[in-house]
Amino acid sequence: MISIAGDTHTHTLACDHAYSTVMENVSQAKKLGHSFLCMTEHGPAMPGGPSRIYFATLWNLPRVIDGVTIIKGAELNILDYEGTVDLPDALIERLEWVIASYHPPCLATGTKADHTRGWINIAQNPNIHVIGHCGRDWFEFEHLPALRAFKETGKIVEINAHSMSYSGHVANCRNIAVLCAELSIPIVVCSDAHLSTQVGEITAAAKMLEEINFPRELILNADHDRFLATLKRTSNGLIDD
Q: What pLDDT score does 62 carry?
C-alpha cells in the first residue's frame, strides 16, 4: 500500500472549522513516523479563517518540533476566475508550501468554462505550488486543458483523501489521477485533516492510486528525500537542507 513520509495539507484551530492544535497535529505525525508536517491554514477570505497576521508570524514556529519538520504554508482561496487569491504576493513569497483551492464560501460557482479558465490562470502564478483538491465536482472543469497548463507551469496536483469521502467526487479524483500519470504530472497525497486524528489518513486515496497503478516516482511525499528536493524549489530558498 502507498504510504507517505508526511502530510502536505493540514489545518488547526487557527480556523474555526478545525479542532486541533499545532502540537496535537505534530503528535499524531510523530506517532505515524512522519518526518515532516505541512501547516496549510485557510487564507483569510475563508469565513472563520485566520487573518494576514497569522501568515506573517508563522516564522515564530520552530523548524522542528519533537522530531517533526514543520513546513510553513497556506491553502489560499481562489477569489475569481482571473487568478486572484486572498494573500498578497509579499506574504505568499515568504511561505514554503502554497496550495490554491476553490471553496464555495469564497467564490460562487460559475460555468465549466469559467472553472477551467480559473485553473489555467492560477497555473500562471509562480508563487502557487499546489493545485488543491481539484477533484471536487463543485467546480467542474475540463480536465485535460487545465492539467496541461499545470504540467507546463510545473504545478503539483493534490490527491486529497478527504475529497474521496464524498461519493460524487470519487470519479473526478480518479480521472484526474489517471491523467496525471499519463502526462507525468507529480502529485502529493494528503489528508486535508481538520482534526489531529485525521493527520496522515490517506486510505481512500492510496487505494485508488494502487488500483490505477499510479507511478510511485510521481508521488512526491511518498519519500522524504524526494519531497525535500521539491521543497528546495517551492520555498524560495527558505529551505536549503
A: 96
- Domains in the chain, start-ordered, CATH in brackets? 6-232 (3.20.20.140)
- H-type alpha helices, 110-198: 112-123, 143-153, 170-183
Distance of CA 180 to the CA centre of its chain: 15
Choose among 199, 161, 221: nearest CA to 24: 199
Separation between Cα atoms, residue 162 and residue 132, nearest integer Å: 12
DSSP track, 181-222:
HHHT--EEEE--BSSGGGTT--HHHHHHHHHTT--GGGBGGG
Backbone angles phi, psi at 59, to 5 degrees: -70, -5
Q: Of 44, 121, 54, give the one whose Cα is nearest residue 77.
A: 44
* CA atoms of 173 and 189, how far apart (whole Å): 11
- The DSSP call for residue 9 is -
Return the C-alpha cell found at 160: 486529497
Task: Give the pLDDT confidence of 139-153 residue by residue, as tens digits.
Answer: 999 999 999 999 999
Residue-wise burial string across 181-206, b where 16 or more C-beta atoms lie within 10 A, e elsewhere: beeebbbbbbbbbbbbebbbbbebbb
Q: Report if pTM > 0.90.
A: yes
